[in-house]
Amino acid sequence: MSTIHAWLARAPSAFLMVQPEDLAAETFSQNLPGTNLERPNWRHRLALTAEDLFASSRARECLEALRDRRSD
After folding, report:
1. Which residues, at least 6 apart from 28, have a Cβ–Cβ distance to it below 8 Å?
2. Which residues of the chain have pLDDT under 70?
3. pTM to 2 decimals?
4. 57 HSE (CA, 13 A, CB side)
5. Measured at the alpha carbon of residue 26, what is the angle toward residues 51 and 15, in degrees to the nearest 5?
6. Which of 9, 24, 46, 63 is within CB 3.0–4.6 Å of 69 for a Cys-Cys bond?
């Protein structure tokens, strides 16, 4: 995943956002098309707490790839 984030970080865009689901390696989408009667949109919680998420090696790796953008 950090390869994708590093590639995105090199883009000339002024703003880049990373989804918490990407950092947590979630495979279940937060918002699915449909109504609240068809799917429980926005009710899915990340499996990790915020502290555990930012302590994870995956999140640190992805964020480091983005941090390198500042040195370009």
Report:
1. 44
2. 1, 31-32, 34-36, 39-43, 68-72
3. 0.65
4. 0
5. 75
6. 9
